[in-house]
Design a protein that fits this description.
The protein is built from ten helices and no strands. By secondary structure, it is mainly α. The protein has one domain.
């Protein structure tokens, strides 16, 4: 199993880098507090483990045989991120004309968890990453149990990383800053989510035309 250490470290570093997962966790942690942020991180970690389970039982071969599935994920995932972006922009627009602190939104625990889960499961980059991981693991002759163990390790690292981000973005100073600048921060989140979503949709439409 030691030969898998570079792979796990690489995935760990990829998870720590900015992306839709981090954006979802930080946005909810800032706006709704630590509990909601940690539950979003738990949703992300659950999504990571679901991908691991799916690839253990052969969905990687399915995705390679039917690449249009990835195309559909680009359109669905892009649309979901664009929806999150529009939602954040709407929150920013409502708060722009209100007094400081009145624009704070609350996200229920169930919705926070579901947001984290859906961000991962509709992300085509996550699927493509697991395709690459499964091809790498195929050469190591791992059993299904060992494959799931790798998935569990990656899921645990996701929980540790995004749970830490949730705690950082829900500190007192971070939330006080959010309350003062909520419309600016929400607008920034909205533009980033929207840009990522628009790019995925544009890539998908380009593939359809091609």
């Amino acid at each position: 199993m030691l030969e898998l250490l570079p792979l796990i470290v690489g995935i760990f570093l990829a998870q720590a880098s900015p992306g839709p997962n981090l954006m979802a966790v930080s946005s909810i942690a800032l706006g709704s507090g630590r509990r909601a942020g940690v539950l979003t991180a738990a949703g992300v970690a659950s999504g990571v483990f679901i991908w691991a389970i799916l690839f253990t039982f052969g969905i990687g071969a399915f995705l390679q045989a039917f690449p249009e599935t990835i195309l559909a994920m680009k359109l669905i995932g892009g649309s979901y991120l664009a929806y999150l972006g529009l939602k954040a922009l709407h929150t920013a627009w409502k708060g722009a004309g209100s007094s400081a602190g009145t624009n704070c939104r609350t996200t229920s625990g169930a919705r926070a968890y579901l947001t984290g889960l859906l961000v991962v499961l509709t992300n085509p980059k996550a699927a493509l990453m697991w395709v690459a991981v499964s091809m790498f693991l195929a050469a190591t002759d791992l059993s299904s149990g060992q494959y799931l163990f790798v998935g569990l390790c990656v899921s645990a690292s996701a929980m540790a990383i995004y749970g830490t981000y949730a705690c950082l973005f829900s500190t007192g100073i971070a939330m006080r800053t959010y309350r003062r600048l909520s419309h600016v921060i929400e607008a920034a989140f909205g533009m980033v989510f929207g840009a990522i979503g628009a790019k995925l949709i544009a890539d998908g439409l380009r593939e359809i035309r091609g």
